[in-house]
Amino acid sequence: MKSTLLQTYGEHPFSVIRLQVSGTQKKIGYQLAEFAAASVNGKTAATPISADEKKRRLATMETYAGVLNDRATGVAEFYHNQEIDPYSLNMSQQLGTFACSSLFCSSDNIKLHGRNYDFTLMGLDQLIGGSSTSKLRPFVDPVIVLEITPTDKGFKNVSVVSHDLFALFDGMNEYGLSIALLAVENNGFLEERNYEAVYEILVPRILLERCKTVEEAVILFEKMPKLIEFIPVHYIVADRAGHSAVLEWECSKKQHGVFYSKTENLACTNHFLSSVQDSSHLAHYENSKMRLNTLLKTDTNAIRDAAYMETTMSQVDVEVKDDSGNIIGATLWRSIYDLDRLTARYWFLDRQHDLKKAKSVIFRL
């Protein structure tokens, strides 16, 4: 395991860490648990569960994400096989609300997937208690670029994670499948915990670790029993063949919706695109629709490389200020995945609080 600090909280709005893990899936799980425990000062980063719940969790994951069960075994070993959920490595006590924009552009020459992650810069005490000043670091801190190189089974991949090292917010694997998670509601709610289902921020990890194409991802997504642990989301996936899809589901009716494109460009923001649910009643709907229309109006034929895509995504950057003019929320990072060249480029909000002026960091699979 190798950890490299790319930017430091205090000097910048939040820390960014490059975390490289390799080895067998079991060894990778042990390393991730070790890192998560150190991040929460040695406390248990996994979620307590009973022995029966743990058994049901592992049985479910063997069906839908068998390659990750060995990784979960490594997590359990680190915690001396305590009664914990080995599929969760929380570095925060509670998820906050989040929003994003994403665009996939495909032509004969390019396959580029861009994503903005919009989130608060407040601390957890502000989010929960509503205080005007925070005694804690920003809730998102630290942001981690996680590079996983398995030596036994599974796919090499790179992803951006925060809150939970077992999950991801966006990423790409060695076969050129990319995925990003976006919220579709700002009001969090908790379904009854069910260890025979997959919680929403673990879904993209499973798809990235198991699927080579959008078609495979759609099939697995529809088969997988899913649980909204905190907030409703949807996902945009894309592959090197130029196919893309937005994957959605409505939990109470157990309905799926796939907004699928085999040739055209595809964009999504923070409202449902399929017919599984109407989003027009949501408070953020108009803003979400405005960002979607901005991306759809872009002349995507003019996008030739990651720099052009970065300029396009910057059109929908978000910045939120309090009454005193302090920035309390913004587009915290931008990810652009080149599916042909297997290159990931990231921009992180830095001390200038201007993502357009931030330097990019590049990772190659």
Give a short synopsis of this structure.
By secondary structure, the protein is α+β, with helices and mostly antiparallel strands. Helices cover 24% and strands 31% of the residues.
Task: Please explain how this structure is put together.
By secondary structure, the chain is an alpha+beta fold. Helix content is 24%, strand content 31%. The chain has helices at 25-39, 51-78, 124-129, 203-210, 214-223, 285-297, 306-313; strands at 2-7, 16-23, 47-48, 84-85, 99-106, 111-120, 143-150, 157-161, 170-173, 178-183, 198-199, 226-227, 233-238, 244-250, 255-261, 266-268, 319-321, 327-338, 343-348, 360-364. The protein has a nine-stranded mixed sheet with strand order 1-2-7-8-9-10-13-14-15, with helices on one face. Strands 5, 6, 16, 17, 18, 19 and 20 form a seven-stranded antiparallel sheet that branches. The chain has a two-stranded antiparallel sheet with strand order 3-4. The chain is globular. It starts with a strand and ends with a strand. The relative contact order is 0.15. Mean pLDDT is 85; it is low at 93-97.
Provide mean pLDDT, rounded: 85
Rg: 19 Å
Number of E strands:
20
Low-confidence stretches: 93-97
Strand proportion:
25-35%
Main structural class: alpha+beta
Compute the number of helices: 7
Order of helices and strands: EEHEHEEEHEEEEEHHEEEEEHHEEEE
Helix content: 10-25%
**What strand line-up does the widest sheet have?**
1-2-7-8-9-10-13-14-15
Cα end-to-end separation: 17 Å
Overall form:
globular
Sheet with the most strands?
9 strands, mixed
